[in-house]
């Protein structure tokens, strides 16, 4: 219909896009609006569209149901109203929909499939040269990571002080000559291509929308400019099922923003994102109030030099939401205390968070001759932790029910049991961390038989320790990072 371009079919939970011509005079990012209404048997959704350059506007929609849909595109961008119909086909094998909160402390895809986040951080990987971005995707493809945190805005910080591949606004960065009311479409096209690449790999894109590490003025924009940016980002990215919103990285060191600003951004997300993607905000020194109703899960950076994942039990109880320790120090050897723990220590913290009923995020900061550090640039992983995190992920996936919760079995171990009451008494995962017991004795009852396994979490081995009942003792090698898994016989 008169220049309206769209496909006749789209897969459930994928991006349906309508492209239409419109006015390009004045400032089309500010002076005109565009909306789309999408109607199916089971849902009606209204979304904002956006200007994408060359006199073209786009509206994106993620359908939640299979069947026939119709749409209408309207607004001041054109004197015309555009309409059409399309068909939503069933989801393919690896398409489980967007991630939701499940059982209060955990996650599941919309089709009910459990989702256990194993995150990593690559703050500025989309701002690097194309060949490095491709290397990052190849590394991710062969890893267990199923969530990645990264910034929409370029980042200026130690080991990352070169100019980015693109800028988010039109103009030139010298003398701060960027127009904060005119977006550079190529910057956002690149990010959405990478969001799609991650989706194809089954990886959630945890988008850091704002951050303080900036020499271009993005962190100092006015309230009007901030709101324009938020609405543009949501209009472009919300239809991708794997998007998560992180309002900020280290919100509390963005001193030009107030609590009212963060709450206003949250209001914009809740009003403009009809899909209710995961939403959180990340701290440096002071935890945000994660009881706020707009926050779906806790995204936490350690606030103590030593105590990190050990606080997960407390945070679960305080906030009654899923807890992800998204920054608890990185495996590496740089001079800074946030980036020089061993692989053993990072893996220990992952196990600690997991057995306390939470989740954790990886990062890597090894000195590199060209300053290409995974934590910021992506590329290649050099550390020892990723394979061990894959091993942990496999163990979590074998848990009965959906997710783990902390359980007091003894004072000197961290024990996890299934979150579901249905599986209580059937499964115990007893982790010893840096302790080195040579044996452990257990007693649950006199009659139940248990299959017992000894897990070496660092060497990634699982050793059958036999079937036991009543009071029994399990021998251990007397070294660090061991665990014992106890399963009621007959439980898969």
Protein model, in words:
The chain has 3 domains: 9-89, Immunoglobulin-like, CATH 2.60.40; 99-397, TIM Barrel, CATH 3.20.20.80; 404-488, Immunoglobulin-like (Sandwich), CATH 2.60.40. Helix 4 (259-272) links the parallel strand 17 and strand 18 (279-280). It is globular, with a radius of gyration of 24 Å. The chain is an alpha/beta fold. The protein has helices at residues 130-141, 185-200, 223-237, 259-272, 312-319, 343-355, 374-377, 385-397, and strands at 9-11, 16-21, 35-40, 44-48, 50-51, 56-61, 67-74, 82-89, 99-102, 106-109, 114-115, 119-121, 147-151, 169-172, 177-183, 204-210, 243-248, 279-280, 298-301, 323-327, 331-332, 359-362, 364-365, 404-407, 414-418, 427-431, 439-443, 450-456, 461-468, 471-475, 482-488. It starts with 8 loop residues before the first strand and ends with a strand. The protein is 19% helix and 31% strand.
């Amino acid at each position: 219909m008169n220049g309206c371009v769209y496909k006749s079919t789209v897969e459930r939970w994928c991006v349906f896009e309508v492209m239409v011509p419109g006015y390009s005079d004045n400032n089309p990012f500010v002076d005109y609006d565009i909306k789309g209404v999408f109607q199916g048997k089971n849902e009606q959704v209204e979304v904002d569209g956006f200007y994408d350059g060359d006199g073209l506007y786009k509206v994106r929609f993620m359908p939640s149901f299979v069947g026939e849909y119709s749409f209408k595109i309207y607004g001041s961008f054109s004197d015309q109203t555009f309409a059409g119909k399309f068909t939503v086909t069933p989801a393919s094998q690896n398409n489980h929909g967007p991630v939701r909160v499940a059982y209060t402390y955990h996650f599941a895809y919309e089709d009910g499939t459990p989702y256990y986040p194993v995150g990593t951080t690559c703050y500025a990987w989309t701002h690097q040269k194309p060949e490095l971005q491709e290397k990052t995707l190849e590394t991710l493809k062969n890893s267990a990571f199923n969530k990645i945190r990264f910034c929409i805005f370029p980042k200026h910080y130690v080991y990352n002080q070169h100019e980015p591949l693109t800028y988010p606004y039109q103009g030139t960065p010298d003398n701060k000559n960027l127009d904060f009311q005119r977006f550079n479409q190529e910057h956002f096209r690149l990010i959405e291509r990478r969001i799609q690449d991650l989706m194809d790999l089954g990886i959630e894109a945890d988008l850091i929308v704002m951050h303080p590490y900036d020499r271009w003025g993005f962190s100092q924009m006015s309230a009007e400019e901030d709101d324009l940016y938020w609405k543009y980002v949501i209009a472009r990215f919300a239809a991708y099922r794997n998007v998560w919103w992180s309002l900020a990285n280290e919100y509390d060191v963005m001193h030009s923003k107030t609590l009212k600003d963060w709450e206003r951004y949250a209001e914009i997300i809740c009003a403009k994102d009809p899909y209710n993607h995961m939403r959180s905000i990340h701290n440096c020194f002071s935890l945000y109030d994660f009881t706020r109703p707009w926050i779906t899960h806790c995204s936490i950076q350690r606030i103590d030099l030593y105590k990190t994942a050990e606080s997960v039990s407390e945070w679960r109880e305080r906030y009654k939401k899923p807890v992800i320790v998204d920054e608890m120090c990185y495996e590496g050897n740089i001079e800074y205390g946030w980036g020089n723990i061993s692989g053993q220590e990072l893996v220990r913290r992952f196990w600690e968070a997991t057995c306390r009923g939470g989740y954790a995020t990886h990062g890597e900061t090894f000195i590199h001759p060209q300053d290409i550090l995974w934590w910021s640039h992506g590329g290649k992983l050099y550390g020892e932790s990723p394979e061990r995190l894959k091993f942990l992920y496999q163990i979590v996936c074998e848990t009965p029910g959906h997710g783990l919760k902390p359980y007091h079995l003894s004072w000197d171990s961290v024990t996890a049991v299934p979150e579901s009451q249905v599986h209580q008494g059937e499964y115990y995962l007893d982790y010893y961390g840096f302790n080195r017991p040579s044996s452990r004795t257990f007693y649950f009852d006199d009659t139940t038989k248990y299959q017992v396994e000894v897990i070496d979490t660092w060497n990634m081995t699982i050793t059958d320790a036999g079937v036991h009942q009543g009071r029994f003792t399990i021998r251990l090698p007397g070294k660090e990072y061991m665990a014992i898994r106890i399963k009621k016989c007959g439980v898969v």
